[in-house]
Specification:
Blueprint lengths: L8 E8 L2 H12 L5 E3 L2 E6 L2 E7 L10 E5 L3 H10 L3 E10 L2 E7 L5 E7 L1
Parallel strand pairs: 1-4, 5-8
Antiparallel strand pairs: 1-5, 2-3, 3-4, 6-7, 7-8
């Protein structure tokens, strides 16, 4: 290992076809209103876990939920997982708020997300 580690899965994004209906279901499930609410993204922060709703799968073309592992060094973690067989789906890029995200595909086709907060 390169010395990079994960801080666990704290973010899960779900593609949704009807944002209003999904927002109501997740608000009922979590027992809280969304903390981020826009036409392109709705996010809930519940007990240290962030649940995001992405209409139509967003620009990432998500077709299933993606769990995001929080890491201290996204580039180091990308290099680490690529070296053992993952392939890059979405290179590391900034999404606002000093946050970098990336996604990789594991050897079985599962999409894994990475997040680094600076």
């Amino acid at each position: 290992m390169i010395g990079s580690s994960t801080r666990g899965i704290r973010t899960v994004l779900h593609p949704v076809s009807d944002l209003a209906k999904a927002k109501a279901v997740y608000a009922a499930l979590l027992g809280i209103p969304p903390q981020h609410d826009s036409p392109y993204y709705v996010g809930f922060d519940a007990e240290g876990q962030h649940i995001g709703l992405v209409p139509g799968g967003g620009p990432q073309d998500m077709t299933s939920p993606v769990a995001y592992w929080h890491v201290p060094d996204i580039e180091a973690k990308l290099a680490e997982v690529i070296a053992v067989g993952a392939t890059v789906k979405e290179a590391a890029h900034e999404v606002g708020g000093d946050r970098l995200v990336a996604t990789v595909i594991d050897p079985d086709g599962n999409v894994l997300g990475l997040i680094q907060d600076r």
